[in-house]
Design a protein that fits this description.
Layout (H helix, E strand, L loop, with lengths): L2 H24 L2 H35 L2
Helix pairs in contact: 1-2
Length: 65
């Protein structure tokens, strides 16, 4: 995973946590839901990047790189 991707995903996760906390504190269910969705999106992107990294490592081992 590239550094830019890691930073972007972490930023999205933190933004989601802030939205969820603000929504919970103010009783705004929509904002809280948006925060949870942002966090889920970030986690999904991290998972995809992990799979890509693993595939690259396997390819490198098979090709001797």
């Amino acid at each position: 995973m590239g550094l830019d991707d890691k930073i972007s995903n972490k930023s999205e996760d933190l933004k989601g946590k802030a939205k969820e906390a603000a929504g919970s504190a103010t009783g705004d269910d929509q904002l809280e839901g948006e925060g949870k969705a942002d966090q889920a999106s970030s986690a999904l992107k991290d998972g995809v990047e992990d799979v890509k990294d693993a595939a690259t490592k396997i390819k490198d081992k098979l090709t001797g790189n």
